[in-house]
Amino acid sequence: MVFQDLALWLGLTALDNAALGLGARMSRREAREQGRNALSICGVMALAECWPGKLSGGQQPRVALARAVAGEPQWLLLDEPFGGLDLLSREALIKDVARLVAELGTTLVLVTHDPREAVVLCDRAIVLDAGRVIEAGPLSGLLQQPASALMMAFRDSLGDR
After folding, report:
1. Closest Cα to residue 122, out of 78, 86, 160?
2. pLDDT per position as a tens digit, 60-75
């Protein structure tokens, strides 16, 4: 999982953050190697020995993503992972997440309020309003025939995309 606030441990290097939690399943050496692989996959291997407080706003989500993929999960939950990023960092990270999910064969569950993120990363959607499911199904179908005002606004916000 990549938490909305990223939940990086400030007292751990990027590598130690990426390897966090793996020690229960493997040796420390194996966990660090798996952490290095995850940092590499996420494009931040050069930052392995950096502290989270020294990383930019665009680098921190990549380290959090590396921690999430280091254990080779079948499911990856991203809770608004692109918030607070500048436009270029956001677009690059969205593309990298799409590539990464495809390469790893991982199922992505994305929590977002941004229709552009959902369209790029998701095939199916569950639309919630006040905690209730109001629509669910293939995203393309929901966009073509929205059944709720929320999904209609979501579609309209995409413009001609």
Report:
1. 78
2. 999 999 999 999 899 9
